[in-house]
Amino acid sequence: MIEVKKDKTIVAYELKGARKYQDNSADQNWPGFYDGLGQALAYLDLPKIAENSEFRSAGGAFDFVYLVHARPDESFEEYDLKILNLPPIGFITVLPDGKCMKIHSAQPNPLRDEGAKLHFLDNLETLEKHSIESRIFRGIKQKGEIYFQKL
Questions:
Q1: Per DSSP, what are the bridge partners of residue 19?
Q2: Over the stretch 43-87, which tens digit does the pLDDT of each residue have?
Q3: Buried-exposed string 62-88: b where 16+ CB fall within 10 A, e elsewhere
Q4: What's the pTM?
C-alpha cells in the first residue's frame, strides 16, 4: 500500500495479515516475525524504471517504508525489538481488536532519489484504479468492516 500525503511525502507499507484455517475455526495462522521483511527492504529501491523493455534503478521514490503485521498480542521478545532497530524500516502491529501500534518508526529512506520520487509523483494517475476511490478498494473496505463488526 502506498500513501501520498498532502506535503508529497510518500510512505510505502508492506502488509502481512493473519489467515483463518480452512475449516472455519477461530484459529488463525499469524505471519512469522520475518514475513514481509524482504519485501519491505525492496521498497527502499522501488519503483524500478522501465525503458526500452529494460528495468533500471534510479534509487527509491518512497520517503519512508513500514512493515505492518497482524499479531495475536502486543508482546515481543527483547531480541525481536533489537532486530527491528537495524533496518530503516518502521514496524506497525495490528491486533485482533483492530488496534494499531507503531512499534518502531521508520527512518528516512537512505536510497531515496529525488528524481525517482518526482517521476513517481508525476505518474500517479497510472495507479488510479488502485486508489481508495476504486471498486477494488471499496470491496476490501466492506469486507474489513464486516470482519471488525464481528469482533
A1: 29
A2: 999 877 667 777 767 789 999 999 999 888 888 888 888 888 899
A3: bbbbbbbbbbeeeebeeeeeeebeebb
A4: 0.77
- Domain range enclosing 144: 2-150
Q: Taking a C-beta distance cutoff of 8 angstroms, is the pair 36, 16 a contact?
A: yes
pLDDT per residue over 37-48, tens digit each? 999 999 999 877
Contact 41, 88 (CB under 8 A): no
Q: What are 10-39's pLDDT values in tens digits?
A: 999 999 887 766 655 556 788 887 888 999
Tell me how many domains the chain contains.
1
- Per DSSP (E only), the strands in 35-124 are 49-51, 54-56, 64-70, 90-94, 100-104
Distance CA 49, CA 55 (A): 5
